[in-house]
Amino acid sequence: MRQSQQWSFVGNKARQHWLWYGYNTKNGGVLAYTFGPRTDETCRELLPLLAPFTVGMFTSDDWGSFGAFIEKYMFN
Predict the structure, then answer these.
(1) 29 vs 44: CA distance, rounded Å
(2) For residue 5, what are the contacts with CB-CB under 8 A and spacing of at least 6?
(3) Rounded to two decimals, what is the model's pTM?
(4) What are the counts of helices (DSSP H) followed by strands (DSSP E) for the chain?
(5) d(CA 14, CA 57)
(6) CA-to-CA distance for 68 and 39, rounded, in angstroms?
(7) Are 4 and 21 in contact (CB under 8 A)?
(8) Where are the alpha helices (DSSP H) in 1-76?
(9) pLDDT (tens digit, 9 = 90+) per residue, 22-53?
(10) Inter-residue contact 61 to 38 (CB < 8 Å)
(11) Cβ atoms of 31 and 10 closer than 8 Å
């Protein structure tokens, strides 16, 4: 599974909106998603949505929230 984000802006770049999602890299398709700023809080919103799925591996950028929260939500 790949966890990632994409961003866009409304009006100007100071008003960024992020799409956070978990993607099944083997079969394709989005497993779960949420919208919000690139904050710990939004990361914490996405991870419980992914908990029902069997996740063998995460890939993401090295943004700190992923490392801080993935283990707590997915592997306990």
Answers:
(1) 21
(2) 18, 19, 20, 21, 38
(3) 0.70
(4) 2, 3
(5) 33
(6) 12
(7) yes
(8) 40-50, 64-74
(9) 888 888 889 999 988 888 888 888 888 988 88
(10) no
(11) no
